[in-house]
Specification:
- With 201 residues, the protein is α/β, with parallel strands linked by helices.
- It is built from 6 helices and 6 strands, in the order ββααβαβαβαβα.
- Helix content is 35%, strand content 14%.
Length: 201
């Protein structure tokens, strides 16, 4: 779905692995087939560019929780397609605890073999040029602990890449617990996107 608004376009990618089209659509990108979700997302980005709806300079992506894993994976796989990436409470280092039904069990060597191929943290490299991502996390998030975002941001900085990072000391996996906290988080996201994706002077 593509929706045009004042000064921009919002595209929602219904990729395999989601629940939009029933259980079989969801199961199609589980475990060893997880790369299909990332491939679908990349295909949507490529189509937006090919049809002239956007361009790499003006294309930003955003995902929350497992959507943060999605954004992290495509950011490391195809960074040239994007100029902004927002990762909200993301799962990024898959070598620790993971959801075995969705992703696989990282402690099982056969599962880790395919998980390692798309784990964002493990596929960073100093040789690639990445758009400067924005990581948002919460100290008290018990579903996607802040360690993943902290480690990914630190690893990128160690490699010489630019990052933005914000950690709320309060909040849940879904965001701020007060209207002020939610507004602060939204303001950070929109300010970042406007700065990254605006027309060059």
């Amino acid at each position: 779905m593509v929706t045009e608004g004042t000064g921009g376009v919002y595209a929602l990618a219904n990729i395999r692995g989601g629940g939009e089209f029933g259980p079989s659509w969801h199961r199609a990108a589980q475990r060893e087939n997880r790369q299909r979700a990332f491939d679908d997302f990349i295909a949507v980005a490529e189509d937006l560019i090919a049809r002239g709806i956007s361009s790499p300079q003006h294309l930003g992506i955003m995902g929350h929780s497992n959507g943060g894993l999605l954004v992290g994976a495509v950011l490391t796989q195809r960074p040239e397609l994007f100029n902004a990436a927002v990762l909200l409470n993301p799962h990024l280092d898959l070598s620790g605890d993971s959801d075995p039904d969705e992703l696989g069990d990282a402690k099982d060597p056969s599962d880790w073999e395919y998980m390692r191929e798309y784990s964002p943290y493990h596929n960073l490299t100093p040789q690639k040029v990445y758009p400067s991502p924005l990581f948002l996390t919460a100290t008290t998030d018990d579903r996607a602990p802040p360690g993943d975002a902290r480690k990914m941001a630190a690893r990128m900085e160690e490699m010489g890449h630019s990052v933005y990072f914000y950690e709320a000391t309060e909040g849940t996996h879904g965001g701020g617990v007060t209207l002020h906290q939610q507004a602060t988080r939204d303001a950070l996201i929109f300010a970042y996107l406007l700065d990254q994706l605006r027309e060059a002077p």
